Structure formats: C-alpha cells, structure tokens
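Our preliminary data section would be incomplete without showing what the modeling component actually yields. Below, a chain of 349 amino acids is followed by its predicted structure, encoded as tokens that our downstream tools consume directly.
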Amino acid sequence: MKKILIATSALVAVAVAGQAQASEKIKLSVGGYMEQWAGTVSQDDSASNINAFQSDTEVYFTGSTTLDNGIEVGAVIQLEGETSGDQIDEQYLYINGSFGQARMGEGDGAAAAMGITAPAVGPVGVNDGDLTNWADIPAMPDTVWDAGDDPKVTYYTPVMGGFRAGVSYTDSADAKNDGPGGDTDTGQNTTGGMPVVSAGLEYNGEFDGFSLGLSAVGEHQGGGEWFSLGTNLGFGNFTVGGSYGVKAKDYGVNDNVADKADDTTGFDVGVAYKMDAASISLSYANADIVTNDAGDGSDVDTVDLGLAYALGAGVDWKTSIFWFNSDAKTAAGTDNDGFGAVTGIKLSF
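Predicted structure:
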C-alpha cells in the first residue's frame, strides 16, 4: 500500500510539472467559523459539572491556482482560535484533475472524511463527541473512529456513476520524515508508532425526488482495525439515516494483545426536517465501549433533540435538549445518567 501511494504521488507530480510558470500565483482567502455555547446539565451527584460555557473557533486560509494543463493546485490551512496544544488543526496541499484528487499534509483520513452518520442539527449530536464537553461520562457513542490529523498522503478517485473511493496512508511515528527533528519529533503524530491505512467507498445520488447517500469506511492500524457502514435517505424536507460501527479491541495497540475483551460497537439512527430557515432533528445512539483488555468500559445511550434557525447569512442559532445514561461494565467504572440543554450561536465566515 505504501509503495502504491508513493507511486501515485509521483505520477501526479509529473502531471503537474512543466506548466506552472504560466499559472497565476496563489492568493489565500480567509474563512472559518466561531461557536459560542451556554448550557446546563442535571446528572448524578457523584459526577462533576464540567462547564457552563463552551466555545470553538477556527480560521481557514485557502487558495488555489489552475495550471495551463487544467490541473488545480491548492492549499488549506486551519488555525485553532483557542488551544493549549497545536495551533494548526489541519494543513495540506491538494491537486485536482481528471484523475481525481491527491492530498499531502495533516488532515482527516479518507475513512473519517467519507463516513456517514445519522442526521443531526443541534450543537450536541449523539455521534460527534460533544456530549463529553457537558456530561461526566467516560466516552461517547461513536461509529467513525479517526486516527487523527497526522501527516499523510490521500487519494480520492473521480466520481463515477455516483461512486467515489478514497485511501490514505499515515506513516509511523518513528519515520525519519515525520517532520522537523526527524525520528525524535513525535509531537505531530498520534498513531502510537504504527502506520495507518484508511479507506472508504461512498455513493451519492438523486432520483425521483429522493437523495441517497451510502458509505463503507474503515482503518487498519497495528494489530487492529475498525469499520463503519452508514446511510442517509432524503425525501421532501425529511432526511433519515443511521450508521453502525465496530472497533477491534486491539485497534492501535499491537499484534500481540490477548483476546480478553469484546470489540467496541456502536450505532445511531435519526431523522431531520428542514423548512425554510428552520431545522429540527431527533437522534439516538447506543455504544458498547471497551477501554482495555480487562473488559472495563461503559454501555452508553443518548438521545438528542436538535433545533437550528438561520438568523441571517452565516448566522445560525442552535439548541440541543439531550438525555444520556452510562452504565459501567465492571466495578472499576462509575455510572451516570441525566439530561441537559445547550444553546448558542454559530458564525460562519
């Protein structure tokens, strides 16, 4: 797989070379978003309140140029508005042409980018990880597990009959080209020292007043892997859908983990309705989460009622009313259940 991706990158580079001098120099444009949320949660007395306020802000710099041979070359740089770690979220170079798209840099793998989950419009979805920002539970239900925004090479095929495939390769953390500092620089890599192969297949089509989205995605890392299947069906103002995922107990660890625990599994289902500037969604997720070989983990259920209203161009008011229940699988864990509400504004620019 590594040799195939390197060969693909070389072919793309050859296709681009030779006509760059006549193209226009790339100029970056600015975009991004800002989210500001306020919320409250009622949960078990043994649980700790996390925060009444949350925010998320990113600034995007994007730019591209089209060469004389019709090939587009561009860059994406995403900066975190507030962080205690890496200021750069994603940064990669991309090349578009009749051959599809090739990327090199730090960003989502093909599986994470192509995975489909249940529709949701609120700020606290059942399958996006945000519930742990408000409730004291060990993990979220999930069906798409991404290895992280590590340096990688990605290739997406052209869309053919509604179908598109993608594959990514992330090198191991001890690779000599892992960034400044060579094999001593592991700050950019969260793969645990093992290469990751991420792949996906998707279908998007419209027919007779219906829209259909399908995805089959997964990753292999070390001695384990995960996979996920998802679908969304749109008709009129409605969208219904869901997903199911399985993550091997030794994903991202090694080839020698003893078979002492079950795999982590999760699924979600949901429905959304949009009318003019207003949208509403109702979604449910369940996960059987295993955190180690001793069998520790949690059974988590969560329901979210999401509301969204476009106040103007790039200004959306969103609200979530949610319920959750987390049962520890062993005596080493803790139980928690409760409900809450979060509301706020998202600005897109």
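The helical segments are 2-16, 110-114. The chain is about 5% helix and 50% strand. Preliminary results of this kind motivate Aim 1 of the renewal.
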